[in-house]
Amino acid sequence: MNLGGSIISEHTFGGGLFLRYRPFDFIMLQSEFDILNTENYTSAPGKRINFPVFMLGAGYCGSLGQRAYYNITLMYDFIDNPNMTIPKIWNSVPLYLRYGFTFYLG
User: What's the angle, vertex CA 5, arms to CA 3 and CA 9, rounded to 5?
Assistant: First the structure.
């Protein structure tokens, strides 16, 4: 990222679990719990920390044939940790827009 001539490099690592439910072919509900590791921007800059993320959301699914679909999801982060590196839709509300593809292997 380039900010006013300075180059900023940032790495965030993590993992988590999610539960996805499709009550209709075009609607998706998702809950997600993650643990992320990133730089601590609030109390100890330069040091890395782990922090939890708990999101719930809903979205639209579009078919890409019989074995795949794309999704666009609006997720709300209930923990709202200040070290979260994913950009919010609005600065004051912890809402995140996510998109992706799902492929069925079986």
Answer: 55
